[in-house]
Fold each of these.
Amino acid sequence: MKIGPRFFLSLKDSPQPAILPHAMRIESEIKLDFKDVLIRPKRSTLTSRKKVDLKRAYTFRHSGHTFEGIPIIASNMDSVGTLAMAKSLSTFDALVALHKYYKVEDLAEFFTKNPETLPYTFISTGITDDDYAKLKEALGREELQNIIGICIDVANGYTEAFVDFVCKARDTFPNTTIIAGNVVTGEMVEELILSGADIVKAGIGPGSVCTTRKMTGVGYPQLSAIIECADAAHGLGGHLIGDGGCAIPGDLSKAFGAGADFVMLGGMLAGHEQCEGEIVESNGQKQMVFYGMSSDTAMKKYVGEVADYRASEGRTVSVPYRGDACDTFREILGGLRSSCTYVGARNLKELPKRTTFIRVTQQLNEVFVNS
């Protein structure tokens, strides 16, 4: 049975225009970001952080496949979503969405030597005809048969072409787990799940090297996006990724507390050995380049130039070299366990049920940050 793009069909079939020229409106309800809240502590019977279980078990709506592990995903940015990162994070039973620029032959060669990483690795794709052909080639390779799924990734998940591609991917790969994004509103989460996505990625503009909000004025505060999108996803038996906006371990706790099933990290995993980037020295300090996938740097690297009809929507920065990503990942997991003990959650699944957010004007005392 083919799954159609219900939202766009309803717009086409509507007897009246869905959006009128004078339909500008202002939503006055307050929307919140991670910096706007703290988690209220609650009584707990836990005696140690060691007793907190951070693994989750999910069965996906369309593919029927299951996942059990740490629901944190390294972003499919080319300086984070690497094969080396996949090899390292799989030792934690955590996930990586590989960037889409790997050649199929390179993927096949890697997974022949490291098949144990397959159940924790997504391969990524865009939505062009060439992307579709490459995706079919990749999923047709015997070496990739046990990969967890695919990540259909675009900056703007509100286009008809994107929804059509999700439908096409579901029809072509009925037993494959599909991530689709990015969006930030409940109705589009529902549309993508009904069109074949198992997991929807929420986040427009919150990333550390994303300038979409600056360049377009479009976006949505990430905490509210997660709350609203998770509600929509769970109502249809789907799952949600909170993608972007996490700068410190406590932000992951807020994302999970808000209802995210998975959290995707970019900047927090940048600058590590597994990022496969060039290490340079500046003023006696080792640094690595980190950039958004819509930045000048990325577009010039992969398509040769920034097209004359568009603008860059990403930054290029140098970040301190931080060594092994496993050390940073352990610190992140330690923060999550501690969050759970503060609210009495014995496992990550209980965290949303035990979370009460309180609005704040300041969450950190930064008097010594620059000293």
Amino acid sequence: MNPTNKLKIFNDPIYGFITIPNTLIYDLIQHPYFQRLRRISQMGMSYLVYPGAHHTRFHHAIGCMHIMQKAIETLRFKGVDISDDEANGLLIAILLHDIGHGPFSHAMENSIVEDVHHEEISLLFMNRLNEEFEGKLGLAIQIFKGEYHRKFMYELISSQLDMDRMDYLKRDSFYSGVAEGNINSDRLIQMMNVQDDQLVIEEKGIYSVEKFLVARRLMYWQAYLHKTSVVAEIILTKILKRAKYLTEKGTQLECSSALSYFLHHKVLVTDFDQTVLHTFAQLDDVDIMSAMKSWQFNADFVLSSLCKMIINRELLKIQMSDEKPDKIYLQHLREQLLQIMPIEAKDVDYFVFKGKIKNQAYSKVSEPIRIVKKDKSVEDVVDASDQLHLKALSKQVTKYFICFPKVLIDT
């Protein structure tokens, strides 16, 4: 019998042909934990705004691995010493960086698991895989956690100009059709170098960095923080919270066994033993969509109504403002709702609520994007740039919103 060919090639719409560099990475990609990412959407509920945004975390992870290969090649060409083991560690770390995402990305983190972030679950998955693969992921885990002594390697995984951001901006722009988010990742990678163990961008690449930061700002306002995406994700979070509440009260809800487990149990990060991790690995977008299709006919008015909003794309009205919402107006909406909907006062917050969103394209407080000049001096990109708008991009912008049923507009 012929052995399996593990040096496969993916045909990616963003980068063209992507090669799997070695058999270990092939085996990691083939693992059920990673294959689950094919069933986890990259942009959550954004498909309700941009119909093409149906790409997955699997696409993104493979893309990140590919551009990490390009970054390693570039740095080696410029004389940066990266051993084969270190290169493999970088590839594995970026490949698995999002493996802990739950269904529809961030909705799970704010509903049926108790403040457990996907980065924490990613690390749990990596540790479990390290056991299965006899310690071959040890260096990748060190780099992922920022514990490896070569600091620039962590910056390639997690920083304000990492492989993760480079891929998701270019990929999400492509699939959503938001052209303003497109970036020149090839140019950015070619301009990378390492100085004093820190990742730097050569001075002639500063305009590409400026374009990158502007693109990130625009993608957040036009895609990730688009008002319809925002209200849809909040509704989904409220659906899962309502389902958990009803389950705790003894209501039997039709859903998959994996989703049922998380509805019946309070799960903290300390509870993620091997059994819980394996159960979490059974969850994907299909579980949530299937449950909502069933729950839209549930006798509970709140759960049923919220599910119908997502299934039929008849969402709550969302009004954005630069000012905090008026409390009197919000109370008026709540009182109106009680008069026309068969709900109790304690359930009004499922339908009428306020919130805020924040957008900051670049933070001077976080690890900076460093520009290295010809004299080898290093400056923060904001200080090195002659564009005043970069200073504006480093300021956090906050917008406030209120959500309520559209029927209240006419009452």
Amino acid sequence: MKLFSWLRPAALTLTVAQQQRLDQLPSAPTLGECSLREQRWVVVDLETTGLNLNKDVVLSIGAVVIEDGAIDFSQQFEQTLQRGNHKLGPSVLLHGLGPSAIAAGSDPRDALLDFMEFVGDSPLLAFHAPFDQHMLGRALKDSLGYRLQHPFLDVADMAPLLCPQANIREAGLDDWINWFKLQVFERHNASADAMATAELVLILFNRARMQQIHSPLNLQQRLSQWKRRQQSHSF
């Protein structure tokens, strides 16, 4: 045994078909100068066993596509991941994914490959994106050895940036849904939350264009500037 070889993680066990699918995933995109309308966006939401970034795991993935300035109802994604050895915490009371639903879920490797094929070379949007980005990135690394490098924009930052008059920073998704008076009939499962977030995004993209933010790259730059200002004001 080589020195410290026991410290290395066990080799990932992918089938030939899974490895082929992994090898064929497109390269991560960079945000460009096309219009917000022309860009294909994937709005994602995750349900997890809890909020611990290092111990909890992804239970389900819901996503919807925004393309040509509208939600494309023909492009939706929803999968529950099979998890055999993870205890369910209080979060099950919100998302409703009980043991039977999780036991009937998909092999995490196949589910994650399905999702990344659905994403393709599109950037991602999520409400409180750092959490989803971290959890999804860790799931992809642990299950597939895949490094997530797709741009991930935070709708929770976009909203106060583009609508400062709302004066509801640190707000949750429900706060913004209520502020815009959106009619959302279902919440707290991955696909429903992704759809609610996508409806909010459409309003925010319209506000962005009114403020001369016309491209994905420009939006990313303005978000970065806004976050730096917020951080400087907090000291």
Amino acid sequence: MWTKPYDMKEGFLIGGGLIFAGLMLELSVGPVNWDAFRWPVNGIVLAGFLALIAIIFLLRKRVYGFQFIGTYKAAIPSLVYAVVLTIIMGLTRQTVDGVWLNNMLSFWPFILTYVYIAVILGQIIIRRTLHFQWKRDIPFLLNHLGLFLAMTTATLGNADMQRLKMIIVKGEPEWRALTSQQQIVEMPIAIELKEFIMETYDDGSPRRFASDIQILTKTGKNIQTTVEVNKPIEVDGWKIYQYGYDTQMGAMSQTSILELVSDPWLPLVYTGIYMMLAGAVCMFILGKGVKGKLNRS
């Protein structure tokens, strides 16, 4: 073991070592505090992470461990660990205030495993880019660059995502919202409830509820619209959802509860997903073209 060239067992040991290191961090400093990574800190971290990937690639011929990171013998074990942790996340209840397996997005072993995968992806992307052949590598790079972009921006962007509740009363503009810790946040938009709408079934249970609202923004917009469950509207980077109402008043409710969500990194995440879809389409088209040539020969 640990004799060159490294094999799968070394890859599993490296992945296992990262999980152990993550557990030690979890015990010593607690879960990842994403609030500490708010902009511009996450932008600086991203720039530093890209520089680290480049340095590892440049030193790969001098440091054998760096060379090993760019191989499938390192990639496959890391993916196995990632899949296992992701399955655990899917089988356990995830909460914002949860600990260990109940809040995997702040669980150090989970984070370190995905950071390691991102480093491996970076090595593979750089290597294929330097030996680029467009028919072979366009689908490959679209898939891998898309995955890298989606992973890194979704992780770092988590620090800037805001999910707030706003209670609006008929005829009274409201510009304050509440965090999950009941802290008051002054918003760049003001919302006034014009009318609460509820449609019911024959037994009186709600079938549909929505709010006619007026939105005023600091940029001068004056928007009259209707927001309802699963049909949000977007204004100045905020998605506004219908969340609740005064259940005691029912259809006569004079208040409405809205959820406001801001995720400024989400366009980059979507870009990564679209790149992966484009890579799949290119793979199908180019693969079909190669197959057609082989059939004609």
